[in-house]
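User: Predict the full complex structure for these chains.
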Amino acid sequence: MTLAKTPIYFDTDLGIDDSMALAYLLATPEIEIKGIGTVGGNCSAAQAARNTLDLLGIAGRADIPVAVGCHDWLAHPFDGGSPEVHGANGIGDIELPTAAAEPVDEHAVDMLIRLAHEHPGQLRVLAVGPFTNLAAAVQKDPAISELVDRVVVMGGAAMVPGNMTPVAEANVNHDPEAAAVVLAAPWQVTTLGLDVTMDHQFEEADRIALVDSGRPVAGAIAAMMDGYADFYTGVFGRRAVALHDPLAAAAACGHLTYASAPVVDVVVDDTDGPGRGQTIADLRGRFRGFPEQPGAHAQVVLELERPFAPMLLERIVSL
Amino acid sequence: MTLAKTPIYFDTDLGIDDSMALAYLLATPEIEIKGIGTVGGNCSAAQAARNTLDLLGIAGRADIPVAVGCHDWLAHPFDGGSPEVHGANGIGDIELPTAAAEPVDEHAVDMLIRLAHEHPGQLRVLAVGPFTNLAAAVQKDPAISELVDRVVVMGGAAMVPGNMTPVAEANVNHDPEAAAVVLAAPWQVTTLGLDVTMDHQFEEADRIALVDSGRPVAGAIAAMMDGYADFYTGVFGRRAVALHDPLAAAAACGHLTYASAPVVDVVVDDTDGPGRGQTIADLRGRFRGFPEQPGAHAQVVLELERPFAPMLLERIVSL
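Assistant: Here is the predicted structure of the two-chain assembly.
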């Protein structure tokens, strides 16, 4: 007897660490990527779709449908991406072989809604870019908030500084209005924010291990990581890169053991004040083991039990 | 030869931990309290003046002038205090012997301005309540921002949760508009916020040691602490009280050694959004030892080298 694979919808602004996240998913046999939607963030939604298709091509997974999603954010236009972090093309300005596959003729928002209905109670939604598609989907069809199994997102910063402003993490800061909708919808959400993602890094030695593996996906990711490590030298003081999105992927796969991950009230600051883009988690119960907060449905991952980089490296080189 | 004592202006909504702070100052021979101004916070400004005069009476220090300051906050009326924390009278609803002394016939704002001019380059301003008087003073006479030696405040929460909202500490949250003015003025400010003050506590054993000392000020503070420890049981899960204001007093006296206290840009969220009352410190340089931020003039104390409770206990029982 074969156990059913967990169906996953993957939403991404792919993205260098997004590429690592996709590789992690592709290397995980117990999940099945039912569809990938793209969104503007690290690069445009169209570019993210191209990058995703090309990386899937290298992995020999042209069977996975990729849908272009929202180009602009809920309340503001797409800002052109983050070339200083992810390169002008989102993947460190390296050129991947262009895959023959094209995006499907379905909007990412509709893909997510369809998949939620096709897999009632089962679909795991993993979002590693701005939450625009998720917000648009739950606004278009609120029923999906009851249908999906869980939403896992990379985003936020609870008790550590942000990375775009002193308090705002990039995915949330790009579209705070969308993040507010996603955190307010009555589904179960798990957030992997900077509290945990800045504490797990690939070192230069890991990048070299990717190269040395001789594996095609690993090689592509190592090439993307080169400039990314330059950017992160300004953050960490060395060529180490934070493993933001792959951590969320591993969480969506159920592979992480949390040392601290309270379920608490979370709201998003979508004002135009200095706190714009902050995910405000109510962690005031920290001295008493975070007593239950009635109605809270967001699990904020603060700390893992074990190092993540070795798990990630092993999976990427297995492709 | 006698070394000149450091002149201090003490601004307070006295207050239980404020009383500990005042005791700490009174027990420190190398500083001289030139004046005390009161403000609405834990209780009204008038009540805080009464409490201050009565505590000074017990300490035999009726010579220190006490000026009533702002009753209301800059943009909002005083809210009636925090009876659930500090009792209806600000000092845990205990009755102190009423001192004969009355407040001076000078507003706290004018006292602060006068003292700044009388002690150019020397006055240390210690504020442990809402920053209303300080803000009103620097708005009325901007020159004082160049005249005072340093402003030391109890307030804020940088990388830990707030105590009034998930992100806002009480002193800042009571009057965010004032805090914004004080943090924006070009003086040197040191903030002792919840990052450090929640990590230093008096245990029930310390309270009993205050009683056992048989000293009058220690006895009064131990009596005030009784209900305060009840409140904090809901926070810490035991009868331990956070040493907020006395830590700021010790900082103003130059007695603390900081393990981490970066000088960084700090802004205050004075919007009406969910982040209202948050002090937003730019701590993004945390992985690189907090590189200099040009123009930054706020030192945010995050961690001390040594336990504080023994220092505080020793001083209070010495009175």
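The mean pLDDT of chain A is 97.
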